[in-house]
Amino acid sequence: MRGERGRRLIEQTADLLSADYPLDLLIERLCDTLAAAFDASSVFVALACADGQLRSEKDGRIIDRNSSAHETCRSGQSLLHKSGESKMYVPISCRSDVFGVVGMLRNAENYYTPSLGAQEALAFLRLHVAGVHV
Fold it and tell me: Which of 3, 6, 7, 27 is nearest to 16 (CA)?
């Protein structure tokens, strides 16, 4: 991220992470912050369960095991898709352990490209989301 906008987003994220929020409220506010910063139509966090499932923290639904979000969680690698709507998935991890995924979606008229900040968004998420290495 460049300049003042990047600094503001880092400060907002640091403020969220340093506050004493319950996990569900922290995730909700983090998703709202990321959606506004990256003009995403949807942002979600899905956390890995002990049984190997991936569960959305927003609505509790189980994420399909064949989805890109699940693939990101299994591989520990970020994914970016640009067909129809843009979808970006970044693992939430600490060292080699992956705990979940942050997903950001944009509609077809406003899809992620290098010029629209996809690489900046991925880099930001890798460095700052949830206070761990993503």
Answer: 27
